UniProtKB/TrEMBL annotation:
PANTHER family given in the database record: C1ORF73 PROTEIN, INTEGRATOR COMPLEX SUBUNIT 7
Any one cellular-component term (Gene Ontology): integrator complex
Name of the molecule in the record: Integrator complex subunit 7
Pfam family, one: INTS7_HB
UniProt organism field: Stegodyphus mimosarum
InterPro entries (UniProt xref): INTS7, INTS7_HB
Domain Integrator complex subunit 7 helical bundle as annotated: residue spans: 58-239
Alphabetical GO biological process terms: snRNA 3'-end processing
Amino acid sequence: MTAETSKAIGMVCTLLFQTSVDKPWLIQDDAIIMNAVNSIDFWSAYRIGRQATRYGHHQFAIRIFSMLCDRVSSEHLYFWLVSLCEMSQAENCLMTKTVRSPQGIVECASEAVTYYMKAVSALKAATTPQHSLIFQCEYARLRSEVLQAHLQLQLACSCIKTSPPPAIAGSVAAVTRDELQKCGRVVMQIRKCAKDFKTLADQYGSLYQSVFDADPKTLINIQLLHQGCLLIAQAIDKISQHNQGMGFNTGEEDILSIEYSK
């Protein structure tokens, strides 16, 4: 197959990915995409896999990267493809739309965290003196920890139903002068979640400083992740601590109090 044909197939697949965002795939369409990928050279197939991840079609990326893993000539390229496959597996878990119950959400998030931990290990194995993957490892690690933080927040909130306040909760609240202690252990768990998100926001800030010379889209993405963690931390803080005057200092302007001038 000529290079022009491979390029054309890549462009058609990319166009299909773009037009099929948030839309279900038919089985025959799935087969057509994979048949096209199998008919072109490995580099073009890799590029299609990257486009699949970009537009959220991780089910294709998993199959493409898995296929390419055993067709590379070096160990670090093998582990690089393994890491991409594991991250695609993780994101595919998070995009499962059939999950509705809280328990199902927890299971999907836990599975995604496991895949991301495997991806980080693979990225470390793919590192060579000529190809340092420090940023990639840190970015994937933070993604895993953000998912863990969300998972812990979900579990903490479920404590309201599974762990009612003990009989001495009122006395504890009086002694500590913290009225929210009447709600039981859920308060301390939610406060810990706020600290975890604040720590993640700080780590994203450090990552931003370390890659100040990256492309603008990458910097914007890291900024959004930083602000997202900070926003969740401040929202939890408003609920669980702010009325007691014990909220932590984020060192930045309170996002929830920003007033935009018209």
